[in-house]
Amino acid sequence: MGDPFSGGAVGALMGEALKGAISITKKGLAFKSTLDSNIETLNSLAPLVEEMKMCNMMLDRPSKEVEKLESLMRNSQELVRKCSKLGRWKMWSFPYFQSKLRSKEMALQTHLSMNMTAQNTVNLMKLVDDMRKVLEILLKEEFGRYPEYWLIDLCGAPQEPECLGMDVPLRKLRIELLKDGVSVLVLTGLEGSGKSTLAKKICWDPQIKGDAMISKRPYDHKFGANIFFVTVSKTPNLKTIVETLFEHCRCRVPKFQTDEDVVNRLEVLLRVFGKHPILLVLDDVCPGSEDLVEKFKIQIPDYKILVTSRVSFPRFGTSYQLDKLDHVHAESLFRHFAQLKDKSSYIPEKTLVDEIVKGCKGSPLALKVIAGSLCNQPFEVWKNMKERLQRQSILESDSTELLFRLQQSLDILETKFSVNEKECFMDLGLFPEDQRIPVAALIDMWVELYNLNEDGTNAMSIIHDLTTRNLINVIVTRKVAKDTDMYYNNHFVLVHDLLRELAIHLSKEETFEQRERLIIELKGDNRPEWWVGLNPLGIIGSLFSYIMGMLYRQKQPKVAARILSISTDETFNSDWCDMQPDEAEVLVLNLLSSQYSLPEFTEKMHKLKVLIVTNYGFHPSELNMFERLGSLTNLKRIRLEKVSIPPLCILKYLRKLSIHMCNTRQAFERYCISDAMPNLVEMSIDYCKDLVKLPDGLCNITPLKKLSITNCHKLSALPQDLAKLENLEVLRLCSCSDLAEMPDSVKGLDKLSCLDISDCLNLTKLPDDIGELKLQKLYLKGCSKLRELPHSVVKFENLDHKIHVICDEEMASLWENSTIRNLKIEISTVEVNLNWLPGAHS
């Protein structure tokens, strides 16, 4: 037997020994770095663990997981202390301890990455749940400030519509809504088929809403007051929709940080109301918006969503198809709107009516509009309409076909006050879809564009005609009396989406250079092709188009339109084209952003007569670069809505300033208003919650004829030198709830014919010498603290005309006991609905 330590065997053994020694040496060399890593980890974790313990104590959370982590850390610390004492002479034991160090470090990492992460997630979910409960409490406190009956109609649908010929669809929709297990119901149909009308009508159905005003218990019925109606539109914005819901509920509208924040707060809001059944109507949801609807699907008992859309959205399962009207119902609807029962107007033969009804193809919108256009028209007009509809060719789509039919009714609009009413209808396309259009804004435009009279009566006559022809709807959000004294701040126009599209389509029929009105919508980096002027490569790509647009800015086309409307959203990058709108007389700026600067080209618009700036967001937008208007000598009217007004510049030629729902704190800081606007004839400030006093120097504007300060609840006093306004004819101070008294100098307003102090809740007395005024109308409705009339009112007896007093019953008895003979008393009825509140018809 050979020697085991000789030859190849010895070599193999020596090789294995050498490998083992090298391995031990390597592990020994890595021991120091492993030890340092453990020390660094423990030092980093120590303060974090203390913070976790503190948070658990504050939030009263379980400490089990933190205690386990502390136990692992103590074991690791003990091992680290032992390893730190090992000298070089114990190098052969380093691999052993290195393995233990790594094992402890891995145990810590595992606990942190799995157990603690899971526990933190649980804690976070509990914290979020607690925050939701806190928010619910806060919302309930906010909500509790308003009496329960305030909910009636406020959260509900807009004004109840006529729904003729749709009894069967209404009944079927009701059945579908009341079925158990249906959370989302899609009401679908062609454009103009009456989806929105039916959705509004169902909200007023007795079995859906009930008559809560009679029972005094809004929740005695299926949905009661918990009905929310929101129009989504073509460009849905989750934040805007949720803001609308908060405002519907009379809750303070929060400033959302993220979309996740929006969804969380939405859930809290709905859970506050979720103690009772909820019906949420999402009207006019466009194709591709399924994800938006999903955001509103929250697991709450008896919570249902009704969606109206041109598509059925199969993802949600349940849908109801709204078909075209059959001939019987179509004819009935047509006859109603054509007022064929009126014997004083021309009544055509049934065959002619049938032919026109067939031409409307069962569309409620077409039937309504065409019937309105034929109302009280002679035979020739009816026959011409029939021929127009019969000549209709096969068009590209149902939508295009419907637009064609609607256009027929516009071609027979009349010319009134030297202006074609069709032009006025086309002006309605200047404003965003699904938004109510202030009548006061239309009057401002039409007075300057078409030379109508300044009191607005001619403009209102045109609006009445358009309403009679069913082209628009007019809502009056707050009415003090039957006669509004040509005050139209509470009047709004609503336009069906398709009719708005028709107005825009008609505006685009002319070539770019010949258009009377130019309507521009700017979102993000998107720009119309003409934006970069003569640049032939402008349409290749947005980035290249932008760069080339900067290079060719001097080649921008001249805009020949008299009316310019520009709409921007919050993604607009503020890169304005250097347009040359030299002929523009009206500029309408529709915005949706927190910051907004007037375009550079405004300072070159020397023919500009009317500027209308409207922010459609819920929080006022910071308006900048207002000084660009200072050089415009033709600018007569400015209307600002929901903006924070910067210091106003010198506007010597301005005749009317309208401010609605604005922050006015800085507006009158730079200049005394009488120096900035010395020729002002009319001033209107409405719903400006920060207005405490009237601008300094206002009483020095002697041309001023109309002054309206309404719904400014912090206004507590009027200037003592009010009598300086020697030409003032109308003074409105309605709904200024903090106003406690009026100065005696009011008696010096010799030309004052209308004084409106209705709903001034804290007004305790009238000026002693009010009888010196030559008033024609005096509004006193809602002045609950007025207990007596000053003796001077007997002087009204000397007027050569009757004085018209509008008040409530208690105040009426005071006037009836007076000896004034030339007195007309009108008792104002109390309004039940609260549509006059801002945002009630967004």
UniProtKB/TrEMBL annotation:
Key words, A-Z: Plant defense, Repeat
GO molecular-function terms, A-Z: ADP binding
Single GO biological process annotation from the record: defense response
Cross-referenced InterPro entries: Apaf_helical, LRR_dom_sf, NB-ARC, P-loop_NTPase, Powdery_mildew-R_dom, WH-like_DNA-bd_sf
Residues annotated as domain RPW8: 1-150
Source species, domain of life: Eukaryota
Family of the protein in this entry: Belongs to the disease resistance NB-LRR family.
Name the record gives this protein: RPW8 domain-containing protein
Species assigned in the record: Vigna mungo (Black gram)
